């Protein structure tokens, strides 16, 4: 593809001479304009490879072509050669400040023009090659990061399923918690990256159950006070397994595992945190978990309709759950129903809700 050289000058004879010199450069196309306004309008739509400005003066209107051209997106690196009949240093200094790359004095020496123009075009080609290389490298880095994230998420899902298998909870429950948490975070205005991180971390909220003895975790009847204390330790166990990781997702999961049974009024566990002392991620997962517990079939309770479950959560928001998180769950309600239907399971879980 031919390089494009834009020429701006108010002298038709000079423009013709410059166009003739451009033809000697080989595979280069000249585009000439008689006014700076025309040149600026062209640059707003097109991207030349080299700009030649003829008869630049210190007048603001004359200098505007340099500053306006360099101000367009992706144009700042395009070389600009200024052709002038004066040796006035102030003009040169001002043009350099505005982004000019080189000067040619009149009368133009054809050999010098060709050498300087070729140098500027070579510079431009090198810039484009570097930009293409940088874009390629950026794409490769994104692919590598995406592959690492995918592997990390697969590990998270498998770990979470392992915890679920311990108390016979199914993977659909975990995926619903993840999707409800993402839904709440989105409606609270959290960035996409935080929504993704929260969704992945929420999968591991009950990972600590793997450390709970089967005699407690799988006990069919009510737990004794001592057994309840043991069950509550799944939050501490989960945090211990996940903390101090280099992974942002695992650090977030550790925080959620520890705090998702804390309650706004301080009646939760393991540390009796109150209000904003409970991390927002844990508050979000607590609402997602509470909602799913209400609408899921269990041996000891019949599932509620989603609308009825939401009313239960609204009552709990007065003392236990974050009202803003409950409000965010109810926003765009059809999405919640879609998650519930899409990830539903017919078999009841025998898993114990440690709430």
Could you explain how this protein is built, in words?
This protein has 15 helices and 5 strands. α7 crosses α11 and α11 (248-259) packs across α12 (280-295). It has a 5-stranded parallel beta sheet, with helices on both faces. Helices cover 58% and strands 7% of the residues. By secondary structure, the protein is α/β, with parallel strands linked by helices. The N and C termini lie far apart (68 Å). The protein has helices at 12-23, 36-45, 60-71, 89-98, 110-166, 171-187, 192-202, 214-217, 225-232, 234-242, 248-259, 280-295, 306-316, 323-330, 333-342, and strands spanning 3-8, 28-33, 50-54, 80-84, 102-105. The mean pLDDT is 86.
Topology summary:
Elements: E1 3-8, H1 12-23, E2 28-33, H2 36-45, E3 50-54, H3 60-71, E4 80-84, H4 89-98, E5 102-105, H5 110-166, H6 171-187, H7 192-202, H8 214-217, H9 225-232, H10 234-242, H11 248-259, H12 280-295, H13 306-316, H14 323-330, H15 333-342
Parallel strand pairs: 1-2, 1-3, 3-4, 4-5
Helix pairs in contact: 2-3, 6-7, 6-12, 6-14, 6-15, 7-11, 10-11, 11-12, 12-13
Quick structural gist:
The protein is of the alpha/beta class.
End-to-end CA span = 68 Å
Q: What class, by secondary structure content? A: alpha/beta
Helix fraction, binned, reads 55-70%
> Which residues sit in consecutive blocks of at least 5 with pLDDT less than 50?
none
């Amino acid at each position: 593809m031919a390089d494009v050289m834009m020429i701006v000058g108010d002298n038709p004879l000079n423009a013709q001479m410059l166009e003739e010199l451009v033809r000697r450069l080989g595979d280069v196309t000249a585009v000439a304009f008689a006014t700076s306004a025309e040149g600026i309008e062209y640059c707003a739509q097109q991207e030349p490879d080299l700009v030649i400005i003829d008869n630049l003066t210190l007048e603001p209107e004359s200098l505007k072509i340099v500053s306006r051209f360099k101000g367009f997106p992706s144009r700042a690196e395009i070389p600009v050669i200024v052709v002038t009949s004066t040796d006035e240093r102030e003009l040169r200094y001002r043009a350099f400040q505005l982004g000019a790359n080189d000067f040619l004095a009149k009368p133009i020496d054809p050999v010098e023009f060709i050498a300087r123009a070729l140098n500027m075009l070579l510079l431009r080609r090198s810039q484009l090659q570097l930009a293409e290389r940088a874009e390629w490298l950026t794409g490769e880095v994104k692919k590598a990061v995406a592959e690492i994230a995918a592997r990390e998420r697969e590990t998270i899902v498998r770990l979470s399923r392992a915890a679920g298998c311990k108390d016979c909870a199914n993977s659909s429950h975990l995926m619903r918690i993840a999707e409800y948490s993402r839904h709440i975070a989105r409606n609270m205005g959290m960035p996409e990256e935080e929504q993704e991180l929260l969704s992945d971390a929420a999968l591991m909220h009950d990972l600590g159950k793997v450390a709970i003895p089967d005699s407690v975790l799988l006990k069919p009847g009510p737990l004794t006070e001592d057994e309840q204390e043991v069950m509550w330790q799944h939050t501490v166990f989960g945090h211990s397994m996940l903390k101090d990781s280099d992974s942002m997702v695992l650090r977030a999961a550790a925080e959620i595992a520890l705090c998702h049974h804390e309650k706004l009024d301080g009646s939760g566990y393991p540390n009796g945190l109150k209000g904003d002392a409970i991390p927002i991620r844990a508050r979000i997962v607590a609402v997602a978990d509470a909602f799913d517990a209400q609408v899921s079939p269990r041996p000891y309770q019949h599932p509620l309709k989603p609308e009825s479950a939401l009313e239960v959560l609204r009552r709990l928001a007065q003392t236990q759950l974050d009202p803003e998180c409950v409000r965010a769950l109810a926003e765009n309600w059809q999405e919640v129903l879609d998650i519930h239907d899409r990830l539903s399971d017919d078999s009841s879980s025998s898993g114990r809700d440690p709430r």
